[in-house]
Design brief:
2 domains; HemK-like; transferase; Release factor glutamine methyltransferase; S-adenosyl-L-methionine; Rossmann fold; alpha/beta; Helicase, Ruva Protein, domain 3; EC 2.1.1.297; single chain
């Protein structure tokens, strides 16, 4: 910032200054972000931070907090600074190699679990574009008999997902594979009960206009859905029928205005019982479709 001045003597003064800087920069929830960032910088919980507001800062603490605040002011997402994000009640490691898990993606997990039912047999599902592993790990935690094929083109993303699977005790249920969409399932001749994905769905031309935290810092590979945002859905609609068992299904997150278009893509490939699930804002968020069988590999 042009008027950067950072000389807090106490934790409380540091918090007050951080909130002021974040407010001026129009960062959403400035108090919350300031508390989380300072707690991270001091190695304490948010409750611990609030209990030490009168504590004096050492020179080293003052410098570290100043560096963290300046980094956030550049637009770097809080989650990339702290290296963590909560999803499905679990703490996930995140890096700039992966998309930051969003709360709305929990609707995809809820939908897939409902479609799977109790699942009293071992079955394979795929998480296409696994990223941080949020979907794959949540599914494995909820259904211990599931085996999850987690694919991604990014080796760096797969490394983060492996770390999260190990952290949450489900590494034995997840097979990680570097590859394009469902190619690893096709190559390994795995029949899937379900294909889940939160694919890139932002039209290429819209990416520069996204908020700076997204456009400037999150991986373009996880955002760019091609000219109309539907490139990955077209390819998934074709390939899913090659690997799904009869009666298997897809459940895919979509952009708020893509429900009709994505539904039509899957209907054209022979999928049936196509459904649209709306999020808490009333927007179409998840497309589901059932594969009746019949396509040869």
């Amino acid at each position: 910032m042009d008027r950067w001045e950072w000389k807090p003597a106490t934790v409380g003064e540091a918090l007050q200054a951080a909130v002021s800087f974040f407010t001026q920069s129009e960062i959403p929830s400035p108090r919350l972000e300031a508390e989380v960032l300072l707690a991270y910088g001091l190695g304490v919980s948010r409750a611990g931070l609030l209990a030490m507001l009168r504590d004096q800062l050492t020179d080293a603490q003052q410098a570290r907090l100043g560096e963290l605040i300046q980094r956030r002011l550049t637009g770097c997402p809080l989650q990339y600074i702290t290296g963590r994000q909560e999803f499905w009640g679990l703490d996930f490691a995140v890096t700039p190699a992966v998309l930051i898990p969003r709360p709305e993606t929990e609707l995809l997990v809820e939908t897939a679990l409902a479609l799977l039912g109790r699942q009293d047999r071992t079955a394979w599902i795929a998480d296409v574009g696994v990223g941080s592993g949020a979907i794959a790990v949540a599914m494995a935690r909820e259904r211990p008999r599931l085996q999850v094929l987690a694919t991604d083109l990014s080796e760096a993303a797969l490394a983060v997902a492996r770390q999260n699977a190990k952290r949450h005790g489900v590494a034995g249920q997840i097979r990680f594979a570097r590859g394009d969409l469902l190619d690893p399932a096709i190559d390994a001749a795995i029949r899937l009960k379900a294909v889940l994905s939160n694919p890139p769905y932002i039209p290429s031309g819209h990416i520069p206009s996204l908020q700076r935290e997204v456009a400037g810092f999150e991986p373009k590979l996880a955002l760019d859905g091609g000219e109309d945002g539907l490139d990955l859905y077209r390819r998934l609609a074709f390939k899913a029928g090659l690997v799904l068992e009869p009666g298997g299904f897809v459940a895919l997150e979509i952009g708020y205005n893509q429900g009709e278009a994505v539904s039509s893509l899957f209907a054209a490939q022979g999928f049936r019982d196509i459904g649209l699930i709306r999020d808490g804002q009333g927007h179409d968020r998840v497309v589901t479709a059932v594969w009746p069988g019949g396509k040869e590999r």
